[in-house]
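Hey, I was hoping to borrow your eyes for a little while. I've dropped the whole record in just underneath, so have a look:

——
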Amino acid sequence: MNMQLKEILEIQSKQNLIFKLIIDKNEFDVVSLKIKHENTPVTKPTKRGGVYFSDKIVCKISAIINDLKINEYLTKAMLGPNTEFQNIILQTTYQKNNQKININMITNLTSSMQSSNKIELNLILQDIITK
């Protein structure tokens, strides 16, 4: 996953990739997306709270969505009211060697912040699937 992520970050810095967020079979346009690596408080890979796996370093994603309709799907996706996370997919496409590459980044929602015109979602990357 590190090589795939490195490639995505490199391409994102050279061209503005357009992402779609897919949650509960619904698509939303991502207005802004930031990806960063961050240390966690765990000292070894562990299952946090018995629910989700966390390594010593995680990849955190911040995605901004302007469509407030997404709000109705968030309670099903985030740990808290549920005993497990629902996967949220960030999808993009780019060209490499004259070939179209489709990427699905599988994420879990850790928190969200809403204003009157946007929602910022904080996600943790779980997997990258390239097609």
User: Anything to note?
Assistant: Helices lie at 2-14, 71-77. The first strand starts at residue 20 and ends at 23.
